[in-house]
Amino acid sequence: MAHKILIIDDDNHLRESLAEVLDMEGYTCFEAANAKAGISSAKKNKPDVVIMDIQLPDSSGFQICQELRRFSKDFILIMMTGRFLSAEEKTQGLSLGADDYLTKPFDVQELSIRIRQMLARKGK
After folding, report:
1. Which pLDDT does position 4 carry in this prediction?
2. If 0-12 CB within 10 Å is exposed, 13-18 middle and 19+ buried, where does residue 117 land?
């Protein structure tokens, strides 16, 4: 069974191209353009991995992280940001349950390898 990945980002182009590449890598992808849709999709589809932008129009990746961790400890949560993060922000995200950070732009192949390694460590 293919691993499921949920991508939450308000940048349609980035979200769709990420989903397209990860689909080709054999993952089943779900997409959400905002936090509300992302949280509801995560609860419904129970993805193995959630990749989320830190800055969304209706919320922050930190809040999504917190909400999803309350719902399940099983998700692998990867936060994306388009700007430099301070040590405090990284610490905040990690303490709320984020597993990894990516700074845009990033290499999708690198992301794919990171996902595969995290899934393997979790025994999925």
Report:
1. 97
2. exposed
Which DSSP string do the residues of 13-78 spell out, in sequence order?
Answer: HHHHHHHHHHHHTT-EEEEESSHHHHHHHHHHH--SEEEEESEETTEEHHHHHHHHHHH-S--EEE
- Phi and psi for 84 in degrees, rounded to 5? -65, 135
Q: Give me the amino acid identity at 84.
A: F
The CATH code belonging to domain 4-121 is 3.40.50.2300
Indicate the helix (H) or strand (E) that contains 119: helix 108-121
Contact between residue 80 and residue 55 where contact means Cβ atoms under 8 Å apart: no
Domain boundaries, the chain: 4-121
Please report, in tens digits, the pLDDT of each residue of the chain (124 residues total): 789 999 999 999 999 999 999 999 999 999 999 999 999 999 999 999 999 999 899 998 889 999 999 999 899 999 998 877 778 888 888 888 899 988 888 888 889 999 999 999 988 7
